[in-house]
Amino acid sequence: MARATRTSQPAPLWGIGAYWRGAYPPWIALIVVLIGGRFAVARLWQVVSPPVPMPLFSMLILADIALAVWQVVGAWRSVSHWVDARARGDVLFAARVAIGAVAVVSATHALDQSARQTMALAPIAHAGPMPLEVRNGIAYLTGDISYDLLARFEATPTQGVSAIDLDSAGGHVFAARALAQRVMRRGLKTRVTKRCYSACTLIFMAGAHRDLGPEGKLGFHGYSLEAYPLPIDIGKEEEIDRAFLRERGVTARFAARVFATPHTDIWRPDRHALTAAGVLRD
């Protein structure tokens, strides 16, 4: 009596499981799935504007980590199989170094997203911020533009405040945008009697009326987001604020000059240029 035998089916060469086992050709695994896939994920993170609800943020981070592990392991196994069969050990070493570098960048990216989420939530979580100094209806916003300063602005009573006096060398662009939105919502005037540079100028431009004192200076330049690894796109962020300047009545030529100025330099136009460009508004 003949016994039935079970024939084994060959493992599929494509699919999630096949990639995990290293069955993909190394050029597809390394370049398309790993490097191309991580770049695509970084681009997708750009559309996420923190803060987002923590349950959703946790799901996104966990999904990103799981995807990164799958991409790195599959590429590692694919390269190892191919090199063992066809190439020299130095090629394997170089490929593994490249995979390791992508893994480090992916981990840094996940940490950066967590930092951005934490920073965006900081004004909400900050307990008992000190209000801004207010004298004669003017709130004095002084120091580096940060989420702490935003929290202090939020804690300042709105009754009787009609204007803010700015004195800052710049700071956090995203915090400046948040402050600018609040200034516009409250219909506050803005003025500078000392200096207002870099990110501070976004808040100044939010004023319903914008005044520059005799000794006041405005300073503009392009952005440097070195503190924010991928996926921050400097060009995209500059374009957002270029559009904001135009919406606030600034000429296209002036707005172009602002972001053409390197972040290592500062452009301090005189009162005549500021008035002609629509920066000052009585």
UniProtKB/TrEMBL annotation:
<keyword id="KW-1133">Transmembrane helix</keyword>
<keyword id="KW-0812">Transmembrane</keyword>
<feature type="transmembrane region" description="Helical">
    <location>
        <begin position="93"/>
        <end position="111"/>
    </location>
</feature>
<dbReference type="InterPro" id="IPR029045">
    <property type="entry name" value="ClpP/crotonase-like_dom_sf"/>
</dbReference>
<keyword id="KW-0472">Membrane</keyword>
<feature type="transmembrane region" description="Helical">
    <location>
        <begin position="52"/>
        <end position="73"/>
    </location>
</feature>
<protein>
    <submittedName>
        <fullName>Uncharacterized protein</fullName>
    </submittedName>
</protein>
<feature type="transmembrane region" description="Helical">
    <location>
        <begin position="27"/>
        <end position="45"/>
    </location>
</feature>
